[in-house]
UniProtKB/TrEMBL annotation:
<dbReference type="InterPro" id="IPR029001">
    <property type="entry name" value="ITPase-like_fam"/>
</dbReference>
<feature type="active site" description="Proton acceptor">
    <location>
        <position position="70"/>
    </location>
</feature>
<keyword id="KW-0963">Cytoplasm</keyword>
<dbReference type="GO" id="GO:0036221">
    <property type="term" value="F:UTP diphosphatase activity"/>
</dbReference>
<dbReference type="GO" id="GO:0005737">
    <property type="term" value="C:cytoplasm"/>
</dbReference>
<keyword id="KW-0546">Nucleotide metabolism</keyword>
<dbReference type="GO" id="GO:0036218">
    <property type="term" value="F:dTTP diphosphatase activity"/>
</dbReference>
<dbReference type="GO" id="GO:0009117">
    <property type="term" value="P:nucleotide metabolic process"/>
</dbReference>
<feature type="site" description="Important for substrate specificity">
    <location>
        <position position="71"/>
    </location>
</feature>
<feature type="site" description="Important for substrate specificity">
    <location>
        <position position="11"/>
    </location>
</feature>
<comment type="function">
    <text>Nucleoside triphosphate pyrophosphatase that hydrolyzes dTTP and UTP. May have a dual role in cell division arrest and in preventing the incorporation of modified nucleotides into cellular nucleic acids.</text>
</comment>
<protein>
    <recommendedName>
        <fullName>dTTP/UTP pyrophosphatase</fullName>
        <ecNumber>3.6.1.9</ecNumber>
    </recommendedName>
</protein>
<dbReference type="InterPro" id="IPR003697">
    <property type="entry name" value="Maf-like"/>
</dbReference>
<feature type="site" description="Important for substrate specificity">
    <location>
        <position position="153"/>
    </location>
</feature>
<comment type="similarity">
    <text>Belongs to the Maf family. YhdE subfamily.</text>
</comment>
<keyword id="KW-0378">Hydrolase</keyword>
<dbReference type="Pfam" id="PF02545">
    <property type="entry name" value="Maf"/>
</dbReference>
Length: 195
């Protein structure tokens, strides 16, 4: 089955390769990422991942399997997406400092005749950060294209004291859940013949 990754995120591409998927194609969608007001973070990431998948499905081959995801950070009811400026990144990091937040990723698989959307949550606790540390981290540029203004896979690892759940969900793709969802579409990542 031809797998189409509907994502411009280099992390998601890397993570698919990590679990042995080869030969997939990348078709970044250009959908409106603004969410309807009043949705919970879980509803929001599910809806956005479904929207990203739907935008690519139209041009996909009939036997293709489209995979799309969306990640946000939730802090006590507030949803943090990607920061629009270094100042906003610094504000997000100050809000996350010394507290626990949730990272939500919605995942949609759209195959021949079936579409499935699920989400995964990971709880992440930051240590207390000084203003100087926040400024230094923002100056690296790493926060700018990432939900919640940090990347756990980079220097952001220095901020994370504790994590509960799927680490890869924080990077933007919950691999354990993905494996289970792919199996439902007939794609087995752990097969005896090494596929
Ligand atoms: C919290 C966190 C987020 N992120 C990233 C994952 C996502 O790429 C990004 C959230 O933005 P998304 O809108 O989920 O994804 P994207 O715009 O990068 O790619 P596309 O819409 O084409 O699929 O934040 C990290 O890489 N590390 C982290 O620790």
């Amino acid at each position: 089955m031809k797998i189409i990754l509907a994502s411009g995120s280099p992390r998601r591409r890397q993570l698919l390769e990590q679990v042995g998927l080869r030969g997939f194609v990348v078709r970044a969608s250009d959908v409106d990422e603004s969410a309807r007001p009043g949705l919970t973070p879980a509803e929001m990431v599910e809806e956005l991942s479904a929207r990203k998948a739907a935008a690519v499905v139209r041009e996909a081959p009939k036997d293709g399997l489209v995979l799309a995801a969306d990640t946000v950070v939730a802090l006590e009811g507030a949803v943090l997406g990607k920061p629009a400026s270094p100042e906003e990144a610094a504000r997000m990091l100050a809000a996350l400092s010394g507290r626990t937040h949730q990272v939500y990723t919605g995942l949609t698989l759209a195959g021949p005749g079936a579409v499935r959307t699920e989400h995964e949550v990971t709880a992440v606790t930051f240590r207390a950060l000084s203003g100087a540390e926040i400024a230094a981290y923002v100056a690296t540029g790493e926060p700018m294209d990432k939900a919640g203004a940090y990347g756990i896979q980079g220097l952001g690892a220095l901020l994370v004291q504790r994590l509960e759940g799927d680490y890869f969900n924080v990077m933007g793709l919950p691999l354990c859940r993905l494996g289970r969802m792919l199996r439902a579409f007939g794609v087995e990542l752990l097969s005896p013949d090494g596929h």
